[in-house]
């Protein structure tokens, strides 16, 4: 006993540092684990962000390189719409998109103060409601792109074009077995995605009669008063006997009914340059869809794998009061130009990134939110406008017979439409404030008195900010009671003028409340290019919880606050101070807009719009605000991919059970090209569609 005791007492006599050292060196793994645990807990508890652990942010894709669009403050009357195609479309709705015509007074009052009544005139309300309702009752058209990829002749044609497509030639020349051990995958140049797996585009075109059922869902769930015409864009194939090109026709479609409500439109009729046809590239076809003749101004674009699942109404897509309804997700698209190898299997992502690259060059290099894969609201005059700004990019996209040709630099129309509108509303608002509010005397310069107003406004705002701002903390900022959101019971407002509200789409954010994706906790003393890799705050940040600290010296330069400095140019063109504020350092513009917008005493744009209501500027601003008006909406929907048999069966069953909750559902055929699986899944899918949508639409042949 004694020796042991003496041993232990001897060890206790050793210095503390030695004992500690020995303990930890004997338990090195546990120690390491403990340290990591401690680190994690402290990190979570204190919400510390370790900046040094973040990847070094990349610089923006390219400096802002704006093309001339015109618009408020710049537009010469003829700029807008100059690029629009003559002969396309009708005059419907033109009163909204051209200047020089009387802008409805009710719309002005609505945008400015969100008022629908005129206190001075009795009975006017009825009158106004009638006008608004009249506008709301404009029907919406629907555009589909459809191709029967199962058609054997089309398959032959496609193979023929593959043989002369540079994309597939390249692919063919570089085909090497993937499992050849002699080839170091790292040395492959360029990457050979899908190598050895054959054509991965088959399922993209396989026909499962989706269109038939998608039309059934329209007949079932879209009220007749809302539905304009349905335009189905189709490809042409050579007739087996005469060899002449004929448009594909869905075999179940009753041709006797065609041209009333449902129209078949051949690609040839909409392409600017028909020598690029036939096209097997949906991005190419979409880039021309707004050229459909007699297309309504506002229309819905959808793929045939999308189905309505519950009754909807116009207010689920667009209203004269709140504008377009865009469905955005929290996923984001990088602003940099996509770096690509050549591959015949590019997905949708490259086109989104390329489109964001174009948007970033025009409006600032930022991440932009991805659109939900459901229906997309579109506007023909706005798409014409976009095409007139990026004509080469449209031509290039249209000329790619297969998706991914030409380095996959292809535009994505739905993404373009939504984000272009969002950017243009923001631009209109900022320009209006800068040019017609701040430059009070309209002399094209900001003298000290005018600048002082902004300085004072920012100072007053700063006083309302909490003293210590933990910028990255996840807890929401406190509500700012001063902010009067544009979204105040939109359902009641709409119903008060007779526009029905189904409750299927929740309006979560209005563009009238500022840019929805203001970077949370942005540092306005530094360039946006240092922080552009940050995520946009999700749409769930209500405008009354937005916060920012505007830095006048960084955003507007050191002379702005200098009393004795000469007046500053207030123009909004290239290389102006405004361009820096609004686009190069877009976080500055977002913040300033928020601060200005917050000053409206009513839930409208009164603090942003020009003071002189009789001026031309005022009607220009009102016009453009109405043109680019939008909300971000949320609806219940399911996106499902059919892959293996068992998974598909379970998924379709679940979807069937949700027949009372999903406003939309999308079922995507991603079945591998194995005949056995394909056969089983096709059977399951057909059964599902027939069960879910059993009533034939009026446009089907009677069987
Ligand atoms: C409109 O487009 C035509 C043809 O491209 C061009 O000649 C004309 O100068 C343009 N007008 C304006 C005002 O930009
Ligand atoms: C593919 O290979 C053929 C024959 O080796 C060659 O003539 C052709 O230029 C190549 N094409 C491409 C796109 O690399
Ligand atoms: C697609 O083409 C195949 C083969 O020609 C045909 O059997 C099928 O009925 C077509 N589908 C539709 C919807 O027209
Ligand atoms: C139409 O497309 C073809 C093939 O890409 C091209 O050679 C031609 O120059 C285009 N025509 C016009 C008018 O752009
Ligand atoms: C303010 O502007 C005047 C005139 O340009 C200049 O002389 C002075 O140095 C400026 N003051 C500061 C603090 O920049
Ligand atoms: C919805 O699904 C449930 C369960 O599958 C079924 O009982 C019900 O009849 C369905 N309702 C409709 C309207 O199809």
From TrEMBL:
GO CC annotations, alphabetized: Golgi apparatus
Record's keyword terms, sorted? Glycosyltransferase, Membrane, Transferase, Transmembrane, Transmembrane helix
Ranges of Polar residues composition bias in the record:
76-89
The Stealth protein CR4 conserved region domain extends over: 658-701
Composition bias (Low complexity) maps to 526-538
GO aspect biological process, one term: carbohydrate phosphorylation
- The signal peptide annotation in the UniProt record is none
All copies of the Stealth protein CR3 conserved region domain together span 372-423
Stealth protein CR2 conserved region domain location is 204-320
Q: Which InterPro entries does the UniProt record give?
A: Stealth, Stealth_CR1, Stealth_CR2, Stealth_CR3, Stealth_CR4
Source domain of life: Eukaryota
Gene Ontology molecular function: any one:
UDP-N-acetylglucosamine-lysosomal-enzyme N-acetylglucosaminephosphotransferase activity
Domain called Stealth protein CR1 conserved region: residue spans: 141-164
Which parts of this chain are annotated as the region Disordered? 75-98, 178-200, 526-545
Query: Transmembrane stretches, by residue range?
Result: 32-50
What is stated as this protein's family in its record? Belongs to the stealth family.
Name of this chain's protein: Xanthine phosphoribosyltransferase 1
